[in-house]
């Protein structure tokens, strides 16, 4: 190892220690707000709305946008921009469409803490709440994707073995989330979102000296990619996720529905006042733009200046090693690690909240404490304890599942999210806009929408996960509409029969 590499490693290690110290301090500060399940789950009104918005963007970005999607760009070229453009435009439109009504519904019945509870309250169905909570467990695949991304960064830049990189990421995230709950998670994500935005802008600006061409830098990049392979500058890719118009449409549907994922939409419930939703959505939109629009170009540039990488997901780490001086590399590495951890902590919190609030409270408490007449405070403490214990279990499970490195980070992270979206997009959206929406239809949508996705992917009916998700979502909508109309018809017939007798 030469002197520059050695100094880089030590600078990154020192900065990581400082970063972990900061997140642990935030975790301890959040202890004051996480003594109840409500405080632990959403920290309602404890964080400024613009910080919540930046946190939303940071949680959205993840290792996928900073490692997985640039890896796609490295492999498939500019067709990957369909994904990047959708992340800002389509996803932000979805957020604007859903936020206000979701917030209003969430204030009823004492306030919802999780998306499964929100759906259970909306349709007055504990069965639906439990089913969606079970569906949320699919986010374990998303966590595994973040673990892999973090370990890839440690391995590529610092030389830390893959296994140790995973263990470090899991350990520190569990520590500060278990201490400070939503307050620590949202506040740390807000800080991480700002640092990630700076990194994304620097990645784009670096094209001026890595690719060259001045104001025509994108034209020069296009020419260089075309010289390597004309397929790299095609609007559709030869293979991969972007090979047809239908495949691209399916991806846009995913990105529109992505904001409905439990770890993202629950941030809306953190906002205390309805008038603060404007600030939240504006800051979320700005952060979505900066975090999604720039890093992909570094993946394209990496194909030009660092051809022949053994792993496409290492395109960004390899690129920054080539493009920046030592101190800037260290700062950018911390920024990308922030991108990974900012999603991981949201996912951990979302899963464990659902385990405690929607599974333990609904299923286990009535059996375990059937004759004990627990007070509301006693019940809350037990649910909170169950949530924190499940955090450790989910962390260890994700650690085990991360040991085998996947072929594509982006595909892994999208597998679990697509299973969830297939089941919940119809109950949420039709629950807003369709007066005939009923719990029977919502339950049918969750079962048949997600069930269809699992079958299509398990039997490899579609190699493209996004197409499977799109078709499964449509099955969810059909099931929702059919089930709701049949339930409504059954009620009408029962009334007629009752009147006749």
Automatic annotation (TrEMBL):
<keyword id="KW-0472">Membrane</keyword>
<keyword id="KW-0813">Transport</keyword>
<feature type="transmembrane region" description="Helical">
    <location>
        <begin position="47"/>
        <end position="67"/>
    </location>
</feature>
<dbReference type="GO" id="GO:0015293">
    <property type="term" value="F:symporter activity"/>
</dbReference>
<dbReference type="InterPro" id="IPR001734">
    <property type="entry name" value="Na/solute_symporter"/>
</dbReference>
<keyword id="KW-1133">Transmembrane helix</keyword>
<dbReference type="InterPro" id="IPR050277">
    <property type="entry name" value="Sodium:Solute_Symporter"/>
</dbReference>
<dbReference type="GO" id="GO:0006814">
    <property type="term" value="P:sodium ion transport"/>
</dbReference>
<keyword id="KW-0739">Sodium transport</keyword>
<feature type="transmembrane region" description="Helical">
    <location>
        <begin position="164"/>
        <end position="186"/>
    </location>
</feature>
<dbReference type="InterPro" id="IPR038377">
    <property type="entry name" value="Na/Glc_symporter_sf"/>
</dbReference>
<feature type="transmembrane region" description="Helical">
    <location>
        <begin position="277"/>
        <end position="298"/>
    </location>
</feature>
<comment type="similarity">
    <text>Belongs to the sodium:solute symporter (SSF) (TC 2.A.21) family.</text>
</comment>
<feature type="transmembrane region" description="Helical">
    <location>
        <begin position="127"/>
        <end position="144"/>
    </location>
</feature>
<dbReference type="GO" id="GO:0005886">
    <property type="term" value="C:plasma membrane"/>
</dbReference>
<feature type="transmembrane region" description="Helical">
    <location>
        <begin position="6"/>
        <end position="26"/>
    </location>
</feature>
<keyword id="KW-0769">Symport</keyword>
<feature type="transmembrane region" description="Helical">
    <location>
        <begin position="441"/>
        <end position="459"/>
    </location>
</feature>
<keyword id="KW-0406">Ion transport</keyword>
<feature type="transmembrane region" description="Helical">
    <location>
        <begin position="242"/>
        <end position="265"/>
    </location>
</feature>
<dbReference type="Pfam" id="PF00474">
    <property type="entry name" value="SSF"/>
</dbReference>
<feature type="transmembrane region" description="Helical">
    <location>
        <begin position="409"/>
        <end position="434"/>
    </location>
</feature>
<keyword id="KW-0812">Transmembrane</keyword>
<feature type="transmembrane region" description="Helical">
    <location>
        <begin position="198"/>
        <end position="222"/>
    </location>
</feature>
<feature type="transmembrane region" description="Helical">
    <location>
        <begin position="386"/>
        <end position="403"/>
    </location>
</feature>
<feature type="transmembrane region" description="Helical">
    <location>
        <begin position="465"/>
        <end position="487"/>
    </location>
</feature>
<keyword id="KW-1003">Cell membrane</keyword>
<keyword id="KW-0915">Sodium</keyword>
<protein>
    <submittedName>
        <fullName>Sodium:solute symporter family protein</fullName>
    </submittedName>
</protein>
<feature type="transmembrane region" description="Helical">
    <location>
        <begin position="318"/>
        <end position="341"/>
    </location>
</feature>
<feature type="transmembrane region" description="Helical">
    <location>
        <begin position="73"/>
        <end position="98"/>
    </location>
</feature>
């Amino acid at each position: 190892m030469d002197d520059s590499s050695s100094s880089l490693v030590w600078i990154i290690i020192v900065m990581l220690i400082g970063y972990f110290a900061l997140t642990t301090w935030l975790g301890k500060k959040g202890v004051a707000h996480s003594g109840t399940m409500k405080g632990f789950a959403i920290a309602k009104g404890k964080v400024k709305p613009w910080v919540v918005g930046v946190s939303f963007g940071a949680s959205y970005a993840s290792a996928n946008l900073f490692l997985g999607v640039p890896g796609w760009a490295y492999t498939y070229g500019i067709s990957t921009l369909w994904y990047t453009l959708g992340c800002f435009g389509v996803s932000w439109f979805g957020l604007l469409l859903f936020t206000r009504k979701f917030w209003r519904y969430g204030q009823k019945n004492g306030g919802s803490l999780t998306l499964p509870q929100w759906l259970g309250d909306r349709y007055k169905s504990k069965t639906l709440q439990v089913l969606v909570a079970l569906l949320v467990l699919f986010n374990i695949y998303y966590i595994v994707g973040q673990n892999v991304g973090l370990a890839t960064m440690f391995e590529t830049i610092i030389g830390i073995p893959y296994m140790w990189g995973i263990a470090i990421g899991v350990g520190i995230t569990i520590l500060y989330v278990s201490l400070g709950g939503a307050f620590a998670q949202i506040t740390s994500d807000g800080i991480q979102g700002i640092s990630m935005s700076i990194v994304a802008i620097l990645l784009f600006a670096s094209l001026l000296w890595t690719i060259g061409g001045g104001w025509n830098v994108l034209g020069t990049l296009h020419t260089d990619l075309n010289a390597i392979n004309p397929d790299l500058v095609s609007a559709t890719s030869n293979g991969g996720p972007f090979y047809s118009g239908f495949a691209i449409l399916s991806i846009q549907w995913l990105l529109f529905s992505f904001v409905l994922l439990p770890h993202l939409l629950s941030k809306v419930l953190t906002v205390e006042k309805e008038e603060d939703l404007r600030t939240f959505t504006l800051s979320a939109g700005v952060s979505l733009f900066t975090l999604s629009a720039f890093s992909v170009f570094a993946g394209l540039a990496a194909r030009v200046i660092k051809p022949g990488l053994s792993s496409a997901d290492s395109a960004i780490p390899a690129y920054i090693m080539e493009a920046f001086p030592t101190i800037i590399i260290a700062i950018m590495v911390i920024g990308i690690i922030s991108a990974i951890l900012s999603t991981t902590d949201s996912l951990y919190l979302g899963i464990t909240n659902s385990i405690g609030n929607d599974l333990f409270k609904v299923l286990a408490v009535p059996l375990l404490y059937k004759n004990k007449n627990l007070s509301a405070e006693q019940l809350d403490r037990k649910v909170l304890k169950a949530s924190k214990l499940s955090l450790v279990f989910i962390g260890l499970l994700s650690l085990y599942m991360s040991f085998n490195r996947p072929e594509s980070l982006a595909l892994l992270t999208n597998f679990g999210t697509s299973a969830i979206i297939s089941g919940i997009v119809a109950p949420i959206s039709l629950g807003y806009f369709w007066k005939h929406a009923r719990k029977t239809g919502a339950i049918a949508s969750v079962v048949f929408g997600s069930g269809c996705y699992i079958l299509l992917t398990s039997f490899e009916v579609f190699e493209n996960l996004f197409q499977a998700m799109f078709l499964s979502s449509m099955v969810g909508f059909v099931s929702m509409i059919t089930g709701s109309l049949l339930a409504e018809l059954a009620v009408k017939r029962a009334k007629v029969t009752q009147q006749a007798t």
